[in-house]
Amino acid sequence: MAWGQAGARTIDDLVRRIAGNDPTLTSLTILRQRRFTHDDVASFVRAMATNTNLTELYCSSHPAAPHTASLFAEMLTHSHSMRSLCVGDSSFGDDGVVELARGVAASSLTHLDLSNKGLGQRGAKALAAALAAAPSLGHLQLNSNPLLGDAGLRTLCGIGDGGADGSSGDGLAKVAIWAGLRVLEVQRCGVSADGVRALAASPNCARLHVLRLDGNSLGPEGGAAVGELLQISSSLRELSLRQSDLGDLGGEALAAALVPRSISVTQASGGVSDPAAHGHIPLVLDLSECGLGSQSMAALREAILGGADLALLCLAGNTAVSDADVAALGTVLGTALGPGRRKAESGAAVAHLDVSGTAAGPQAVSALSLAEGLRHLSMVGCPLGAGGAAALASSLATSGVESTECGKGESSAAASPWPELQELCISGTGLDMEDLKAVFGALAAGGAPKLKSLEVGANPGVREDAFQVLLGSLRDSRPQLAVYWRSGDDLGTRVQGQ
C-alpha cells in the first residue's frame, strides 16, 4: 500500500506511477496532507484509463463535490481493476452519492465504503438501483449515516415509494433485487425496529451473509424484528447488534428465533448437488452491550437446547448477566446437543464464547469447563478473584482425563474439563500472585492440553517480580503455549490457530 506523505503538495508523483501502470501500486490511500482538488481528481482519473494494477482507493479525508463525484463514476465505468473504493468526506451527501452510483452500477467493485458521507433517502434510492445492476458488489458499508434512518433503509431494500423525499417521483420498482450484495453494514444509522422489519420484508434479506446493525437504538421491539429477520435470513452467517439497546425483553425475543435455522447447505452456498443434503450454518452473533439479563440468558439456553448453532456468541458488556446465568449456560453447553443432533455430527453448540464484562465468576468457570467443543473463552474484566482462580485451577488440574462411561467402549472428551479449549482470555479478572501460581501450576502439569493462547494482562499478580519466574516455569513446561500479559509481549512460541 502506498500512503500519501506528510508535507507533500501534489499527487503528481502518484499520477505518474498510475499512468505508468506501476505493478507495485495496488492499494492507495491519499491522506489529508496531499492536495486532492477537482483538477487533481481529473488527472488521477485520466491516468487510471490505462491502469490495470490499482485495485483499492481510499481518499475519505478529502471533500468531493458532485461534479468531482461524477469523475469517480467515470473512472468506475472504464476501470476494470478497481475493486474497493472509499471517496468523499461527511460533506459528500446525497448529491455525491447519486453521481457516484451511476458508475457503481457499471463497475467491477466488490467493496464500497460510504461510511459517514451524509447519506439519506435520495442517496439510498440511487444505491438501490446500482445494487440491482452490479453483480460483483458484495460488500457495502453505510455506517455513521444518521440521516439514512428507517426510510432510507426501506428505500435501499427497494420496497418503498422512491418519491417520498421530494425527488422526481419516478420511484423504484416495488421489489429491487440486489445482484450480488452479501455483506451489509448499517451501523449508527438511526435505524429502529421498523427499519429491521423493512429489511426482513425484502427478498434480499435471504441473500445476506453478514449484517451489522451496531449502534442503532432498536429497543425491545427490535428483538422481535430481528427475530423475524432471522426466520427469513437462511444464509446469514454473522449478525452484529452491539450497543443496540435491545434490553432483556428484546434479547429474549431474539433468542427465541434462533432455533429453526436448519437449511440446505447447497441452498446456502448457491451450488447444485444432492437436494437431500441438509445441515446447519453456525451463526456468529454479537450481542455486546445490549442490556441483556436473566430472561435473555434463559431464552438463549432454550435456543441451544432446541438445536441453535452459534459459531460465536458474544455477550460482553451485559453487566446484568450474573455468575449463575453464565453457569447455567455452561451447563447447557456441556450436556445438551438438541433434538436430532447426534454427538458425532453436531460439533460444538458454541465454539467461541465471550462473557467479558459480565458478572461471570467461580460458578461460570466450573460449568464452562465442561462445555462441549468450546475452543475460545474470553472473560476479560469478570470478577473471578480468588474463588474464580481456584475453580479454574481445580478444573485444569483434572483436565485431559478421559472417561469410558459412554457405552460401547467410547471415550467422552466432555467428561474431562476443557477438552477442546485453545484460547483463554482472563485479563483484568483480579488475580493476584497466588491465584496465578495455582492456574499456571495446573497448566504446567498439562491442564487444557489443546490450549495455544493465554491472556492474563491487567491482573495485580503480573506486576510482581515473581511473575517472571512463574512465567518462565510455564514456558519451560508448555513451550507451544503463547502467554500474553502486557501489550506487545508474547512470551511463548506463536502457534497459528486452526
Question: What can you tell me about this protein's structure?
Answer:
By secondary structure, the protein is of the alpha/beta class. The chain has helices spanning 12-19, 38-48, 66-78, 93-104, 121-133, 149-157, 193-201, 219-232, 247-256, 265-269, 294-305, 323-335, 343-346, 362-368, 385-397, 433-444, 466-477; strands at 2-3, 27-29, 56-59, 84-87, 111-113, 139-141, 183-185, 210-212, 238-240, 262-263, 279-280, 283-286, 310-314, 350-354, 376-378, 423-425, 453-455, 482-484. The protein has a domain at 322-336 and 349-398 and 415-498: Leucine-rich repeat, LRR (right-handed beta-alpha superhelix) (Alpha-Beta Horseshoe), CATH 3.80.10. The strands form two sheets. Strands 1-2-3-4-5-6-7-8-9-12-13-14-15-16-17-18 form a 16-stranded parallel beta sheet, with no helix packed on it. A two-stranded antiparallel ribbon has the order 10-11. Helix 16 (433-444) links the parallel strand 16 (423-425) and strand 17. The longest helix is centred in the middle third of the chain and has 14 residues, at 219-232. The two termini are 28 Å apart. Mean pLDDT is 87; it is low at 162-173, 262-279, 337-346, 403-414 and 491-498.
Nearest-integer average pLDDT = 87
Largest sheet: 16 strands, parallel
Number of helices: 17
Radius of gyration: 26 Å
Q: How many strand units?
A: 18
CATH superfamily of one domain: Ribonuclease Inhibitor
User: Which descriptor suits the 3D outline?
Assistant: globular
Biggest β-sheet: strands ordered side by side in the sheet: 1-2-3-4-5-6-7-8-9-12-13-14-15-16-17-18
> Percent range for helical residues?
25-40%
Structural class: alpha/beta
What is the CATH first-level class name of one domain? Alpha Beta
What separation lies between the terminal Cα atoms?
Answer: 28 Å
Report the uncertain regions: 162-173, 262-279, 337-346, 403-414, 491-498
User: Per DSSP, what share of the residues sits in E-state strands of 2 or more residues?
Assistant: 5-15%
- Here the CATH topology of one domain equals Leucine-rich repeat, LRR (right-handed beta-alpha superhelix)
Which architecture of one domain per CATH? Alpha-Beta Horseshoe
